[in-house]
Design a protein that fits this description.
Length: 143
């Protein structure tokens, strides 16, 4: 089993959240969506990403393993943004994030199945304008 260099799903998800690379994704026949969310509550960030992924057909919300895989990818990405403590409002932090969700097979062998990548990029900080800094997070999970 080898990870195909041109099909690094995490790299593509980060590039997607920073800029569009739709041509590459079309060639790979991967599904994707992008969106924005701002909140002082992590559950609202999770809900916004899950809603977008379902609405754009990235996951089938009626299939538990797909929703579960997405949840874990989101939480892993949030850990990156929040530096390991997925707390926002309770510790006086807020985020303004752009997100991307990507579904595809990053392996040469199609039997390895599909994976989900969630990338987050934006700002985090005190809920006072000008008191934030950039942050980025990436979560990858198999379906």
């Amino acid at each position: 089993m080898s990870l195909c260099t041109e099909r690094r799903i995490g790299r593509h998800a980060i590039l997607l959240v920073l800029e569009s690379e739709e041509d590459v994704l079309r060639e790979l026949n991967w599904k994707s969506c992008v969106g924005k969310v701002g909140s002082m509550e992590s559950n609202k960030v999770v809900a916004a990403i899950e809603t977008a992924a379902k609405r754009h057909g990235i996951i089938n919300g009626g299939v538990y393993r797909e929703s579960h895989a997405l949840y874990h990818a989101i939480m892993e990405a949030l850990h990156g943004v929040t530096r390991g403590q997925v707390q926002l409002g309770s510790v006086q932090r807020t985020v303004g994030l752009k997100f991307a969700v990507l579904r595809g097979n990053p392996y040469e062998n199609e039997e390895e199945g599909e994976w989900l990548a969630v990338s987050l990029y934006g700002t985090i900080g005190a809920p006072v304008r000008g008191s934030e800094h950039e942050a980025i997070g990436l979560g990858i999970n198999h379906i």
